[in-house]
Amino acid sequence: MSGEEQGARAGAAGGAGRIADVAAIVLAGGRGSRLGGVDKAVQLLAGERLVDRTVAAARAAGATRVVVVGPESAGATADAVVRERPEYGGPLAALAAGVAAVDETWLWVLACDLEHPELVCTALARAAPYAADGVLLVDDDGRAQWLAGCYRRAAVASVCDELGARVHGAPVRRALSGLELRRAAISNEIAADIDTADDLAEAQARADRADRADRADRTIRTHRAEVRARIELTEEPHTPE
Fold first, then answer.
1. Which top CATH class is 3-193?
2. For the whole model, what pTM was predicted?
């Protein structure tokens, strides 16, 4: 694990607290065509649905409200569930539906298939206070993560209103590229998402390794604590002369 990931995990574990006027919109209504046509949002990683991991990460990082855009079943842990009409209109149409469901000034827009949503949300939280039209995360290879960013609600709503029905099938990158966004760097590891069955299998393997390492670390720490306790019990008290 990189130093950046360790630092981000520490920030997430410590809790970022509530960030004033920020809602999270989790996009979970895709067809999952690259995953064999299954519902990507409900696939399990480390024993938890992908969409639930993202909802929990947004809350832990400080979002005051979390809206899932997708089928009702995907929003079991969200504050609200909405759906673009017609369904499967693409991420920009889903974003437009999410924008209409919130009143907060700022939006964290999150794909449901992030491998490390807690690290992405921590990066977004650390980028506050926000200015202009928001913050766009950019990975090591210079790829902008349009579905892992923070945007001013009014700016996104204006773009969607201008496009009208043309939001369906329109690329998010092209639609939002005119916004004034500050760039924030993250690693490729933090930016990773799960598009294919191989991606999911590899992410699960990494999660299993991390879990084994964590359990080994806890075992070592418990053993050391027990040894210290035994030493303290066997030491004779010092009697001053």
1. alpha beta
2. 0.82
